[in-house]
């Protein structure tokens, strides 16, 4: 294996040059190169010479001579002298005669390496070698604890840029000891050595030397962390030091580094030869593991991999310890990109770049691979050993090690300790596995990834797992699934390449031939890369286990099949034959693997038929494609899709993002049905972030394949109306891309229409829509690009045609937004594009000119769309149409036969109205023709055409021609006709002449009013100087008012239309008493025609629109002349007049909000919207009406009202809160007016869409933004349940809203439940107490007066004082509901001092007993029944919120409003399919109790309900003596709740709320335990822990006081 280091090293030996993070890594690993040379040298010796020749060689003789010389010089010297603990101290000095010279030891080390390579070291006498080793041991000890670094002796010398200076004498002793270590290890690791040479002390001293100088000499030099902190503690500070410092190694240290690497490599060889003690192995493990957490020592790390794997493979007891050592140091792994990955894999990636992984990842992979043991030939196996089981256990051992490592790593990831963050470490490890998978040298990567995915699936599917870990696990699984899919798509197996590899290879089995080719490659390269040996064994064991599993599977299933079908038959025989064939094939495969497994990995020759590395990777992918991991994509995708329905928003969001990651590599996945269902369901998710992620998923990939656009378009386009702004933005971006990149898509027109409708949306969306259409339409097109221009025109006209029914207001607003900022510039891109578009539209219109020949009707929809588009352009930028005005004029002669004709005439009239006044010196002929054409249309055509033509005529005459006589003649004609018809009607209302003249009457009323809107006939230009001084407008008003009282409704309506036109020119006429009485009278009269009401509201709307136009014109003039005169005062006068007029009709307009007809309501809302936009009236009084309109059944009403509320909230913060409760009341009234068509309809406060939604959800969403506002609003709503004045139907409406409000955080529903508890703690008890006081005393019972003892009186007084103080504290706390009103007291004759005790003994069956105690006037029973419903609604509401958001009783009780909000600031997870169903209250209202007569039967049923309610409340305070009685009481109360009929119901049982009992039992825990009763206070005894037997109300009050004191 060719290994490169992705780092740079210091100069000298292996690490030449200084560290430079910008320099590329070395092209070849020094360790790999030297290993190749060593193996080649050893092989050459073995092949070239015999043993005798090697012994006679000069190298061997020279080494033997050196050994003899050393022993001869030391003859007679006691080798045991000197301290055993090592040198370096003043008292522990090795005798000088035992210390060899540096050159002598250096030569000895090199000669011993040569002799080792020759394999003849065993020819030397064992006694000589043992003596030599003892001498070497003394030399090792001499430098084993000498500090070569001067860091610890800085007082003796300074520092320079290259770090502390070294003492040459000390470095010489340290280097000499290193040579001694190498010599000793060369002797020990030679072949066929006697046992005597494996001296334990020598091995121990070598390890001590190595460990000491790694920690104290090498690590501080290469890694800045160890310079100051030898143990590398302190994660954050370590990273900071690494970032600050550069590394420069001195030559002497670099030489020592080379020698230590050789020492570590030799120790690895020693482990393969000799069994060592546990103590020695612990030191070896420490030496081998620490380098992986040090930077800039990559060669040492490579050597350490062999060292650690040797221990891991041979000593199973040390495996767990090694893994624990790795885990303990994981936090110290380098994270900087410079030194992150330094282990280079063979080959390159798809881009030709080298692939690197972390050293620690390479270590883990090789640790997993090294524990497997290959199969042996059956002839060599013992008879007692089950070979299959042995191999399976070997593979399971590797699986255990991998599972253990991954489990602990994930556990550390989930439990963050201090500053240690394992997230980047785990992500780096995962990326390494994905880089190494399907590499020939790393087969364990597939095993690790498979196990990891199983663990990840378990983590994110287990709801008890911490949320952050679940989300991260899901994210990582998505990464793996995307990688699997990417490999499946990008690395499709090339069958031709596989066939090429299989050519000329013997055998019939394709898989075996490929396996043999892979093993040959690994065997050939194993001589230079020891890791390939473990890879080869791993492959063989894995394949052997697969064959065994394949054989066992049919064997296990055969007995079952035989039992199921003992008759056999042909099918059974066939199955048996197939099973036998599978087992036989598996056995042959196992025999093949045993024979193929190489016995030794010593091959150096290059075989001609050996595959290359790239082909080897292809073989690995081909063989892995049938294994479980490669086929697990569908499993992982299914698991991700399954968690799309999780309650946790973060999990759902991450799941959708994982799907995005998967689809990114293969968009065809979106075509799967399960993907469609999953994505569609998340598009409707309750969470905005989830919906946004789902939309983003579609948006990123839907453009890659047009067929996906068609398939997912319906899902996508719905989200343009999403409540989340980010979702709408994302949808608009996607739709824009579709329009730009797929202009031929058949839904482009619909897309544009939908986007245009968002032009008045939130400001960010407005800008996005504007930018979209700027790109689509308003970018200049090159003159030669006819196709693009034609497509633009077709697109625009199609959009205009599609907006025909809904109106073009959105399109007009879009043009205004795009062009308003460029009004004064004619050279801007938008203006140039507009000129091109207008010219092209006119050109297209001329093409349709033939359809108008002979003045025929217009039949072309395209022509209508073109003219309508030109009208819209002229409305925003009229100057664009000046040169085309004469082209449009002939279209005024169109015959009005069809709707298209009317559209053409109206749009041409609107265009000319704006364009003609801008024309410079137009011809008189053109103007006269226009006037004549308009006049003909006014006389002949319908009302719509008349209105537009009169408006156009007004602009032409008033601003250009001043031909007033022409207009006056027309006016006199219709005015005279109206006078005449009025006289005829006064004389004979039933005249046939009037009936025949009705059509002309209607035209006259409309035309006179329209002319009065645009022409002031009282001006001198019309009257002339000699005319009589009468006021024409008053005469016209008189005429119109007369006909508003006509008996024909159509005449009334048309007169009302004319009146609306007239007052636009003369607003003061709206203040005339007759007009005021007419308008208010019709609006207030419920029996008046709906059409008249709508027309009056439209008149007001027309007036306000006209005033708004005047104000805008005044503002434009003001901008031009502001420096010359104060024209603003004129605007103030106009707005003051408008405000006065609107106030006259304000009350009736607001009442129209509650009309049953939606048209009336919409017109009233439009009037209010115009009033607010112009700022005519203070907006506070409109807020409750707008809130009510926000609950209207019509979506258009709701949207418009909500928009107005948003504008008010932006300008006047807090206005919404002030009127919020009033708005809720009016919302209820709105539902009564619009939904309750019959008296029996029950008003509910939610809208049933896909999920139940509160009618006032938008109101809450505005109030919810500010916490004090939200709390005040919720408190105000809950107080209505305790005021005793709100009707039950209204309380049900409010409870529905409280149940379905869109709560965003957990704090919000907890706040509601907390205040429900506070209300229930007093309201229920007060209700029962009032009922007790209402009853008469029991007949025949004498009033007992027991004098209380002084102690009891004092206690009672103290309790009263405590109650008062607690009540004062409650009222002072803003988050505590105030104490309700005291119970009502009745006359003395109806009050029983002991009624509490009397009522306490009653149960649900004592109806007759209570009936006998009812007073003569029991009307108060209605109050009891109504008050009880409020309590029941709150009980049901609390239980619903608890189920809806998954709160436990403990969490509800623990919550306090005074706590920090951050504790409950988590997003509220709303469960689906949880409905608020207060069935008892619904039945109560359905029975019609409020409207029933108080008969004995009704009284009995009300009493029954009150007794059932009493039983329900008493479960707060059970007083039975044993558990059986308590269970009986609970069962009895539940039975009473479920079985008692309603007050007006028949004798049958009624379905009640079973969950209400759970709520009440939860409330008991909320109130806290009650105190023990005093002796004598009750005849019953209590067990410890039971509540007292005093009155229930007092216990409840004590509970409430206790809660208040705790707060």
Report on this model:
With 1607 residues, the protein is mainly alpha-helical. The chain is built from 67 helices and six strands. It has a two-stranded antiparallel sheet with strand order 1-2. The chain has a two-stranded antiparallel ribbon with strand order 3-4. It has a two-stranded antiparallel sheet with strand order 5-6. The two termini are 72 Å apart.
What attributes does this structure have?
single chain; 1607 residues; mainly alpha; two-stranded antiparallel ribbon; 6 strands; disordered C terminus
Mean pLDDT: 77
The amount of helix comes to: 55-70%
The helix-and-strand class reads: mainly alpha
Helix count from the secondary structure assignment: 67
Rg: 48 Å
Overall geometry: elongated
**N- to C-terminal separation?**
72 Å
Secondary-structure topology with pairs:
Layout: H1 30-48, H2 51-55, H3 58-73, H4 102-118, H5 126-143, E1 159-160, E2 163-164, H6 168-188, H7 200-222, H8 224-228, H9 235-244, H10 251-273, H11 278-289, H12 298-314, H13 319-329, E3 343-348, E4 354-357, H14 359-370, H15 387-414, H16 423-436, H17 444-461, H18 467-490, H19 495-502, H20 510-525, H21 531-564, H22 569-596, H23 613-624, H24 633-642, H25 649-665, H26 673-683, H27 688-701, H28 706-718, H29 725-741, H30 748-756, H31 763-776, H32 786-802, H33 809-819, H34 829-847, H35 861-876, H36 885-888, H37 899-915, H38 924-940, H39 943-961, H40 964-987, H41 992-996, H42 998-1014, H43 1020-1023, H44 1032-1043, H45 1049-1065, H46 1073-1084, H47 1090-1121, H48 1128-1151, H49 1158-1174, H50 1183-1189, H51 1195-1211, H52 1215-1218, H53 1220-1234, E5 1246-1248, E6 1252-1254, H54 1257-1263, H55 1267-1279, H56 1288-1300, H57 1307-1334, H58 1350-1372, H59 1395-1400, H60 1407-1411, H61 1421-1445, H62 1449-1454, H63 1479-1486, H64 1496-1513, H65 1523-1539, H66 1555-1567, H67 1592-1606
Antiparallel strand pairs: 1-2, 3-4, 5-6
Helix pairs in contact: 3-4, 3-5, 4-6, 5-6, 5-7, 6-7, 6-10, 7-10, 7-11, 10-12, 11-12, 12-14, 13-15, 14-15, 15-17, 15-21, 16-17, 17-18, 18-24, 18-25, 20-21, 20-23, 21-22, 25-27, 26-27, 27-29, 29-30, 29-31, 30-32, 32-34, 32-35, 33-35, 34-35, 35-37, 37-39, 38-39, 39-42, 40-42, 40-44, 42-45, ...
């Amino acid at each position: 294996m060719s290994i490169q280091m992705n780092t740079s090293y210091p100069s000298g030996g292996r690490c030449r040059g200084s560290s430079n993070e910008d320099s590329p890594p070395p092209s070849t690993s020094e360790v790999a190169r030297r290993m190749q040379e060593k193996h080649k040298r050893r092989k050459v010796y073995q092949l070239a010479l015999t043993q005798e020749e090697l012994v006679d060689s000069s190298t061997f003789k020279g080494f033997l001579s050196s050994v003899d010389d050393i022993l001869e010089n030391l003859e007679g010297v006691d080798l045991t002298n000197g301290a055993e603990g090592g040198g370096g101290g003043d008292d522990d000095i090795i005798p000088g005669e035992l210390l060899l010279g540096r050159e002598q030891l250096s030569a000895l080390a090199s000669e011993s390496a040569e002799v080792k390579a020759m394999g003849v070291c065993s020819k030397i006498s064992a006694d000589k070698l043992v003596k030599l080793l003892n001498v070497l041991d003394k030399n090792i000890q001499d430098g084993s604890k000498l500090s070569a670094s001067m860091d610890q002796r800085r007082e003796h010398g300074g520092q320079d840029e290259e770090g502390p200076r070294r003492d040459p004498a000390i470095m010489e002793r340290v280097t000499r000891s290193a040579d001694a270590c190498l010599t000793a290890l060369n002797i020990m690791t030679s072949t066929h050595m006697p046992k005597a040479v494996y001296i334990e002390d020598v091995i121990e001293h070598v390890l001590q030397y190595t460990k000491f100088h790694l920690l104290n000499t090498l690590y501080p030099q290469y890694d800045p962390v160890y310079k100051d902190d030898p143990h590398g503690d302190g994660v954050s500070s370590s990273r900071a030091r690494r970032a600050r410092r550069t590394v420069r190694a001195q030559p002497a240290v670099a030489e020592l580094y080379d020698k230590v690497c050789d020492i570590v490599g030799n120790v690895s060889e020693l482990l393969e030869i000799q069994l060592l003690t546990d103590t020695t192995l612990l030191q070896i493990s420490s030496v081998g593991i620490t380098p992986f957490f040090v930077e800039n020592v990559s060669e040492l790390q490579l050597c350490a991999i062999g060292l650690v794997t040797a221990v891991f493979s041979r000593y199973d007891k040390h495996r767990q310890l090694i893994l624990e050592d790795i885990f303990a140091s994981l936090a110290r792994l380098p994270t900087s990109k410079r030194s992150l990955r330094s282990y280079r894999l063979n080959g390159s990636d798809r881009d030709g770049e080298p692939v690197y992984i972390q050293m620690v990842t390479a270590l883990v992979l090789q640790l997993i691979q090294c524990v497997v043991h290959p199969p042996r030939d059956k002839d060599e196996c013992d008879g007692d050993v089950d070979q299959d089981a042995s191999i399976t256990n070997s593979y399971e051992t590797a699986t255990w090690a991998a599972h253990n490592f991954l489990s602990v790593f994930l556990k550390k990831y989930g439990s963050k300790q201090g500053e240690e963050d394992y997230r980047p470490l785990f992500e780096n490890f995962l990326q390494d596995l994905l880089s190494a998978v399907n590499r020939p040298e790393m087969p364990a990567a597939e095993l690790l990834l498979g196990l990891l995915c199983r663990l990840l699936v378990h983590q994110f599917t287990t709801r008890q797992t911490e949320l952050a870990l679940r989300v991260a696990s899901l994210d990582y699984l998505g990464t793996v699934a995307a990688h699997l899919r990417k490999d499946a798509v990008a690395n499709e197996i090339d069958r031709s390449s596989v066939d090429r590899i299989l050519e000329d290879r013997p055998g019939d089995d394709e898989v075996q031939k490929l396996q043999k080719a892979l093993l040959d490659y690994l065997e050939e390269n194993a001589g230079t890369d020891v890791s390939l040996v473990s890879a080869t064994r791993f492959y063989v064991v894995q394949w052997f286990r697969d064959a065994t599993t394949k054989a066992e599977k049919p064997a296990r299933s055969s007995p079952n099949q035989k039992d199921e079908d003992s008759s056999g038959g042909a099918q059974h025989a066939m199955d048996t034959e197939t099973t036998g064939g599978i087992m036989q094939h598996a056995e042959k495969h196992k025999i093949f693997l045993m024979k193929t497994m190489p016995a030794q990995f010593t091959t150096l020759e290059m075989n001609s038929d050996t595959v290359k590395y790239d082909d080897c990777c292809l073989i690995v992918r081909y063989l892995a494609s049938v294994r479980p991991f490669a086929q697990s994509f569908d499993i992982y995708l299914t698991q991700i899709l399954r968690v799309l329905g999780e309650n946790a928003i973060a999990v759902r969001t991450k799941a959708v993002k994982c799907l995005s990651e998967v689809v990114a590599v293969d968009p065809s996945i979106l075509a799967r049905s399960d993907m469609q269902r999953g994505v569609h369901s998340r598009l409707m998710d309750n969470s905005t972030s989830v919906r946004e992620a789902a939309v983003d998923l579609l948006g990123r990939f839907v453009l890659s394949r047009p067929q996906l656009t068609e398939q997912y378009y319906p899902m996508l386009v719905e989200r343009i109306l999403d409540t989340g702004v980010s979702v709408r933005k994302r949808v608009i971006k996607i739709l824009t891309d579709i329009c730009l990149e797929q202009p031929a898509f058949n839904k482009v027109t619909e897309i544009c229409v939908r986007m245009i409708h968002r032009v008045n949306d939130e400001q960010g969306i407005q800008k996005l829509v504007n930018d979209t259409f700027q790109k689509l339409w308003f970018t200049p097109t090159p003159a030669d690009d006819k196709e693009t221009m034609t497509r633009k025109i077709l697109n625009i006209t199609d959009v205009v045609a599609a907006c025909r029914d809904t109106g073009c207001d959105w399109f007009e607003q879009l043009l205004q937004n795009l062009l308003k900022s460029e009004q004064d510039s004619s050279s801007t891109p938008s203006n140039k594009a507009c000129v091109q578009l207008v010219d092209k539209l006119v050109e297209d219109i001329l093409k349709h000119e033939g359809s108008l020949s002979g003045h025929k009707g217009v039949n072309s929809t395209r022509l209508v769309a073109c003219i309508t588009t030109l009208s819209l352009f002229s409305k925003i930028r009229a100057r664009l149409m000046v040169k085309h005005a004469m082209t449009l004029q002939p279209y005024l002669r169109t015959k009005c036969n069809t709707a298209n004709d009317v559209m053409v005439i109206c749009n041409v009239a609107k265009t000319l109205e704006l364009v003609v006044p801008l024309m410079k010196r137009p011809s008189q002929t053109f103007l006269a023709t226009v006037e004549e054409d308009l006049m003909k249309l006014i006389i002949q055509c319908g009302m719509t055409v008349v209105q537009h033509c009169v408006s156009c005529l007004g602009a032409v005459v008033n601003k250009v021609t001043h031909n007033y006589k022409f207009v006056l003649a027309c006016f006199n004609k219709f005015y005279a006709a109206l006078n005449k018809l009025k006289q005829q009607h006064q004389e004979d209302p039933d005249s046939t002449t009037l009936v025949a003249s009705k059509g002309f009457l209607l035209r006259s009323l409309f035309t006179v009013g329209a002319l009065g809107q645009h022409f002031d006939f009282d001006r001198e230009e019309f009257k002339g100087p000699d005319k009589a001084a009468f006021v024409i407008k008053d005469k016209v008003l008189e005429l119109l008012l007369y006909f508003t009282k006509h008996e024909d409704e159509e005449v009334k309506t048309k007169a009302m239309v004319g009146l609306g036109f007239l007052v636009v020119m003369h607003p003061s006429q709206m203040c005339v008493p007759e007009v005021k009485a007419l308008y208010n009278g019709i609006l207030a009269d419920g029996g008046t025609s709906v059409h008249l009401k709508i027309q009056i509201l439209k008149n007001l709307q027309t007036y306000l629109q006209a005033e708004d136009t005047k104000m805008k014109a005044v503002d434009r003039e003001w901008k031009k002349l502001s420096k010359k005169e104060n024209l603003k005062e004129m605007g103030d006068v106009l707005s003051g007049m408008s405000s006065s007029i609107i106030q006259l009709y304000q009350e009736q307009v607001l009442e129209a909000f509650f009309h049953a007809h939606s048209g009336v309501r919409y017109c009233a809302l439009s009037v209010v919207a115009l009033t607010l936009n112009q700022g005519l009236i203070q907006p506070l009084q409109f807020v409750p009406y707008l809130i009510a309109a926000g609950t209207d059944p019509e979506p258009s009403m709701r949207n418009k009202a909500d928009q107005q509320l948003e504008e008010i909230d932006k300008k006047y913060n807090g206005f919404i809160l002030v009127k919020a409760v009033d708005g809720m009341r009016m919302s209820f009234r709105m539902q009564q007016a619009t939904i309750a068509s019959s008296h029996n309809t029950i008003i509910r406060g939610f809208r049933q869409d896909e999920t139940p939604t509160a009618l006032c959800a938008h109101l809450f969403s505005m109030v919810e933004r500010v916490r004090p506002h939200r709390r005040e609003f919720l408190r105000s709503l809950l107080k209505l349940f305790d005021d005793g004045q709100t009707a039950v139907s209204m309380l049900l409406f409010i409870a529905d809203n409280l149940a379905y409000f869109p709560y965003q955080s957990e704090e919000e529903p907890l706040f509601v439940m907390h205040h429900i508890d506070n209300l229930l703690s007093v309201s229920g008890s007060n209700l029962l107490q009032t009922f007790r006081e209402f009853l008469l005393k029991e007949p025949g019972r004498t009033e007992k007066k027991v004098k209380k003892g002084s102690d009891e009186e004092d206690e009672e007084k103290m309790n009263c004082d405590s109650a008062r103080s607690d009540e004062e504290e409650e009222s002072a706390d803003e988050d505590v509901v105030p104490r309700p009103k005291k119970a009502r007291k009745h006359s003395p004759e109806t009050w029983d001092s002991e009624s509490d005790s009397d009522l306490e003994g009653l149960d649900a069956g004592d109806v007759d007993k209570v009936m006998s105690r009812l007073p003569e006037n029991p009307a108060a029973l209605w109050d009891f029944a109504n008050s009880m419903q409020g309590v029941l609604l709150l009980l049901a509401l609390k239980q619903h919120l608890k189920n809806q958001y998954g709160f436990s009783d403990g969490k509800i009780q623990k919550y306090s409003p005074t706590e920090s909000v951050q504790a409950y600031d988590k997003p509220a997870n709303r469960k689906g399919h949880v409905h608020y169903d207060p069935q008892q209250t619904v039945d109560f209202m359905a029975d019609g109790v409020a409207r029933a007569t108080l008969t004995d039967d009704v009284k009995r049923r009300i009493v029954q309900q009150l007794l059932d309610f009493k039983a329900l409340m008493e479960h707060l305070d059970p007083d039975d003596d044993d558990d059986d009685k308590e269970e009986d009481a609970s069962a009895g109360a539940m039975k009473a709740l479920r079985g008692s009929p309603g007050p007006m119901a028949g004798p049958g049982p009624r379905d009640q709320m079973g969950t209400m009992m759970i709520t009440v039992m939860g409330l008991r825990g909320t109130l806290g335990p009650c105190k023990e009763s005093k002796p004598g206070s009750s005849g019953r005894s209590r067990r410890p822990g039971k509540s007292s037997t005093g009155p229930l109300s007092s216990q409840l009050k004590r509970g409430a006081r206790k809660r208040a004191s705790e707060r």
